[in-house]
Amino acid sequence: MEISGEKKMEMLRSMILSRRFSEKLTELCKIEGKIPGMVILSTGQEAVGSGVCAALAPRDVIITNHRSHNHLLAKGADPNLLMAEIYCKKTGYNKGKSGTLHIAVPEINAPCTTTVVGGGIPIAVGRAFAQQYRGEDAVTVCFFGDGAADEGSFHESLNLAALWQLPVVFVCENNVYAGAQRFEEHTRSKSIADRGAGYGMPGFVVDGNNAASVFNAAREARQLALSGGGPTLIEYRTYRCRGHGEQDPQHYQPKDEIAAWMEKCPIPRLSGDMIAEGILTQDQLGRLEDEIRDSVEAAVGFAESSPYPEPEDALEDVFA
Amino acid sequence: MQEAGMGQAVNEALREEMTRDPNVFIAGEGVGVSIHDSPLMPTHGLLEEFGEKRVRDTPVSEAAIAGLAVGASEAGMRPVVEIMFNPFFTLASDMIVNHAAKLRYLSGGKSAFPLVVRMKSGSGFGAGCQHSHNLEAWVCHSPGLKVVMPSTPAEAKGLLRSAIRDDNPVIFIEDMNLYFAFMPVPEDDTLIPIGKADVKREGKDVTVVAWSRMVHTALAAAEQMAGEGADVEVVDLRTLVPLDEEAILTSVKKTGRLVVCHEATRTGGFAGEISAVVMEKAFSSLKAPFRRVTGPDIPVPASPPLEAFYLPSPEKLAGAIREIMNQG
């Protein structure tokens, strides 16, 4: 299906923002004491979050996981507030209670980021249940990795979502690695998408490094869900260019494999296509990159100049 | 005033809250069409009254049931989901402990999860340890959850209505033996506040703190001890989290003696917590050592004589009361 120039621009901007944001974090987390906790990035996988979120309306909901920054930025998170949360500052989205890993942004309908692998899947089912119950014209998208498809929560949730024909899109970001295990080391399945049939829902394998393909598959699944056709399982094939987290030495990932996937980087693929189609010039691309670089620097400035929470703030926000 | 069992009282609370608020729905294994159906059971007749949209029979999928509640409550609905028996909590525990309890905190107070998880508990059915295992101490140890364990049908009704209206996740544990113990239930819309204990029997010599079914064990023991000249006060906690420390301390300061009785096993049980609160805040009031009467540290056995051995009885509790009466 035809994708408008405007949508392509939205995806390109979102992918570049996500990439610069991640690269900046790679740089920052090498500096002792800057970023608390374990920084987990989506470098190389940006087409998935950016392509899927471009297919959504603001009222649609996303539930995400430990590798969330790309998804959140693509859904419209403010880079300043996101960076401040990653820095664990009081001005961050969650007042420093989350840190880099569990950032919740209910104001953009990204209410839950969970680091329990597979933990978001039952919650997405609940969120989609509420949409169906209230007759809302909206869907829930759940992002998870190939490793999460080995969890029991995946099975229970997909079974229930299909049974009740809930408006949910299950987005499996198959980035080849679950921790240190390659895909073929953690499952005998040829694909995660194949499992959709077992639950009575469509399952598709899609090139996850091609933003246009990502967008089209998500748009189709969203339409099916909105029309009462129930859930879809989409498996986007992509690659984890960094380690599980930034501290991961990646000794188990062949260097030539990483290099080969970097050749398939989704950003030049989309910008190249747009230039070829005449809807983007090299100059415009350069300006876009500069503008995004500045906004990421501004986010770092905002985070660094923000205060930490007061120690006693730890006692707040347990109960409503 | 009508007489009813706790299941019927829960049923009334569900019916009233579902009528009052369209955001309330129930889900779980057999909440509609049940293998345990009887007019005494908590969700009896609700499917017929409210329909399949609001009374959702689920597959046997505890994690999905609890996740359903977490996700739907974040959207502002008020799910009341059932985990059939307390030991099956383990299958739902990631959703309850890591998500329902923590997501509000992780959001920095932006989100709320107004859900209720109902669980049936209690030994006495010969069902064995995978159906009978009181795990309230586990959930009490997860900040972000409220924990309610009523002892009478009337209180179950008033507390469940409060739990459904509460903006936090509430774990609501019903002892199944109390489904078959008929007591008066007022036909009004009383809300009983979560976090308030109730003195079920006043006395001046010994405080017995108990909850759920053990309140009745405590009342029976108090009657026995009255014959021996000991005046026993029975404090029914009703809610374990938040804990009504004031009620416990007020009573202990009056009597100077404390026994805690729970059906759950001993090590790591909630009696230890109550003992610690009293040591920290009312140590000088104690005339005798603290005692606890609990299930022993064994899985609940199936065989009737073994199961009876497991359960704290009025006689065992009276023995502990007698012991500290003689100590000071």
Structure description:
The complex is a heterodimer of chains A (320) and B (328). With 320 residues, chain A is of the alpha/beta class. Chain A has one domain: Thiamin diphosphate (ThDP)-binding fold, Pyr/PP domains (Rossmann fold, 3-Layer(aba) Sandwich), CATH 3.40.50.970. Chain A has twelve helices and eight strands. Chain A has helices at 5-28, 46-54, 69-75, 79-86, 120-133, 152-163, 183-186, 195-199, 211-226, 255-263, 266-277, 282-305, and strands at 61-64, 112-113, 140-145, 168-174, 177-178, 181-182, 203-207, 232-237. A six-stranded parallel sheet of chain A has the order 2-1-3-4-8-7, with helices on both faces. In chain A, helix 1 (5-28) packs antiparallel against helix 2. Chain A starts with a helix and ends in a 15-residue tail after the last helix. The model of chain A has no long low-confidence stretch (mean pLDDT 97). Chain B is of the alpha/beta class and 328 residues long. Chain B folds into two domains: 2-185, 3-Layer(aba) Sandwich (Rossmann fold); 198-327, Rossmann fold (3-Layer(aba) Sandwich). In chain B, 38% of the residues lie in helices and 20% in strands. Chain B is built from twelve helices and 14 strands. Chain B has a seven-stranded mixed sheet with strand order 3-2-4-5-7-6-12, with helices on both faces. A five-stranded mixed sheet of chain B has the order 9-11-10-13-14, with helices on both faces. In chain B, strands 1-8 form a two-stranded antiparallel ribbon. In chain B, helix 8 crosses helix 12 (314-327). The longest helix of chain B has 15 residues, at 6-20. Chain B is globular, with a radius of gyration of 19 Å. Chain B starts with a strand and ends with a helix. At the A-B interface, helix 5 and helix 6 of A face helix 3, helix 4 and helix 5 of B.
